[in-house]
Amino acid sequence: SEKKLWGGRFKESTDALVEKFTESVSYDKRLAPFDIAGSIAHVTMLAKQGILKEDEAKKIVEGLNEILREIEEGKFEWKQELEDVHMNIEKSLIEKIGPVGGKLHTGRSRNDQVATDVRLYVRHEINEILALLKSLREAFYIQAKKYIDVIMPGYTHLQIAQPVLYAHHMLAYYQMFKRDEERFKDTLKRVNVMPLGSAALAGTSYPLDREFTASLLEFDSVSRNSMDAVSDRDFVAETIFNCALVMAHLSRLSEELILWSTEEFGFIDLPDAFCTGSSIMPQKKNPDVSELTRGKTGRVYGDLVAILTIIKGLPMTYNRDLQEDKEPLFDAIDTVKLALAVNARVVRGMKPKKERMRSQASKGFSLATDVADYLAKKGVPFRDAHRIVGEIVAYCLDNGKTLETMTIDEFRQFSNAFDKDVLNLISVEGSTSSRNIIGGTAKEQVLKELERIESEEGFK
Ligand code: ARG
């Protein structure tokens, strides 16, 4: 087994099972680009401060860049017995450039190093997630704009409630994913703080210029307490929570698309390229992307519970438990990125079945509220109007009628506040266009909202 960089005080070599149990390089090697960027900034600062000589720093930077190239080309040999990404890179640096490579770690600990790496990684990934969220929002925007005239039933309790515009329904999802963007942006403020200089836990006696290192790495600020900085994983928990909520939103969407694409609903056609067939039933077209999105949401919730549980009992400061932050973090980020990308394309490609949605929109006495509002506007107290229309619905059910097929004489049996104009009122178009209030489903409002979104997001 390899000679450990920390091996000085040890008389026995590490047990092979312990190496296997404690290693993280098999998964934390993805931090390599961030680890190297952090090391280059650190060593540049050490030289500026006169802690290292310029030519020493230069050799180290060249060595690190060479290692980065090897990693990118897949030529770097990762060794499990060197534990983690940090030790693998440092050991290789020393092998490449000799003992001067051992000066890289001056005034630094793996504790502030790993905290820095993970922050750089999370910052990078959040920016990618923000772009994916935007393109998903654009897909909803495109659907809303393209199918602005489609009317569908709106539901509460999964029972037909009131007619709404399909566009309004699409823009409800726009709002969810807009909040997700805001949450990630807010998290970024707490992510973008540099721990380097905290060293193992107490800070360091070297005259480091932390602000300078931070500016090289484009951190907004430096951490204010070394003990907190090496043990804080709030930003990991927050990031995974944000991912979990994105998944919750995608899962709600998925559930609706699964329902909508059934024979029973028949509301949408999903693009063929995003569905799969059955190995036995030739007629099948299954919404597997949506089902897997719904299923993978459970994984990401699991990641969130994992990180919250890992941090809950930790005494100050760094404890090796914290190494377990990475797999849930990576899994949550990988899953949410893939799910966002594939669902943006599903949404872009889906086609509402206009006729079917329209005909279902008036089912289930979906205009009953409009009739009650009609009476209330004629001066009947709303509570009474509600009861009267309830009686009308019961009458319709008993006599196999709908509100649309009620005559004016029938209406007047229930209240003499009814005039002929009630008959024109009873249409899904009339119902949606009457809800002309900010946030309402009237076409006029939805068009205004589309315009607002267009300028907010720069969509064309
Ligand atoms: N692989 C470790 C982690 O991810 C790096 C920090 C190790 N620090 C230590 N004192 N053993 O947490």
Automatic annotation (TrEMBL):
Q: Where is the Fumarate lyase N-terminal domain?
A: 8-302
**Which pathway or pathways does this protein act in?**
Amino-acid biosynthesis; L-arginine biosynthesis; L-arginine from L-ornithine and carbamoyl phosphate: step 3/3
EC number(s) given by UniProt: 4.3.2.1
Q: Name one Pfam family in it.
A: Lyase_1
Q: Where in the cell is it found?
A: Cytoplasm
Q: Which UniProt keywords apply?
A: Amino-acid biosynthesis, Arginine biosynthesis, Cytoplasm, Lyase
Q: Does the keyword Amino-acid biosynthesis apply?
A: yes
**A single Gene Ontology molecular function, please?**
argininosuccinate lyase activity
Question: What is this protein identified as?
Answer: Argininosuccinate lyase
Q: What gene is this protein translated from?
A: argH
